[in-house]
Amino acid sequence: MNQPLLEIKNLTVFYDSIQALRGVNLNVPKGSIVCLIGANGAGKSTVLRAISGIKKPSGGDIVFASKAITNVSPHELVKLGIVQCPEGRGVFPNLTVEENLDLGAYVRNDQVQIKKDLEHVYSLFHRLAERHKQMAGTLSGGEQQMLAIGRALMARPQLLLLDEPSLGLAPQVIELIFETVAKINKEGTTILLVEQNAQLALETSHYAYVLETGSILLEGEASGVLENPKVKEAYLGERV
Fold it and tell me: Is residue 208 very low, low, confident or very high in pLDDT (cuts 50, 70, 90)?
């Protein structure tokens, strides 16, 4: 793999007395898409919360661009270039599409580039351009997911954390979302993807980790993990 942009070393996280992560080690090379798959409750979202500073680890180290970030606050991490697109989208329903996108750039003051980035988001998601004055709460689920990703891009992330982007969406919308994720990556954004749709995640990613009850069960090139008999049986519904 290329030089890691993100390194997670022996990460341990508790929720009260319940251990959610047990010594997780994970690397995300610069320029790649890395996916983290696993069943509900495996700890996938906890990994993202720890990276983005929302959940403080009880042990281990998180290193981003050679800088230790384990105890850095969430808003400072955004300034460093780590941006999370949360599960459930989290759009501001009483603000317009464009106001939501503007909020994505709240840590920036380069107005000329912000305007260019807004136009770029509209070029990626034409529906957002068509609805730029519409209240976000009136959008469909797929449009809200587009808005959540677009808002994250407005922060110009080096590392984009995507948490369950396909959740609750129609198949044709999921296809569009993942085509756009691949395009964003080709344009230079490194992506860590948490996704329950294991097939789609593995087909889109370069490298993969399988998380089971807070521990990494296996890892490897995504194409190889896709062909792994245990993964096929546990996550792709195939009898092996």
Answer: very high
Nearest to 87, CA basis, from 129, 124, 54: 54
Q: Say which residue the tokens 């106001």 belong to.
A: 99
Identify the three-state secondary structure at position 60.
strand
In angstroms, rounded to a whole number, what is the distance separating the alpha carbons of residues 167 and 145?
A: 9
Helix, strand, coil % over all residues of the chain, rounded to 5:
40, 30, 35
State the maximum Cα–Cα separation within the chain, in Å, rounded to a whole number. Answer: 55
Rounded CA-CA distance 76/52 in Å is 10
Phi, psi of 122 (to 5 degrees): -65, -30
Contacts of 25 (CB under 8 A, 6+ apart): 8, 9, 10, 11, 216
Of residues 90, 99, 175, 93, the one with CA closest to residue 133: 99
pTM of the model: 0.93
**H helices present in 55-212, as ranges:** 74-80, 97-104, 111-124, 126-130, 141-153, 171-186, 198-204
Residue 231 has pLDDT above 80, yes or no: yes
Residue that is written with structure tokens 């341990």 in the block: 12
* Res 111 pLDDT > 80: yes
Cβ atoms 212, 38 nearer than 8 A: yes
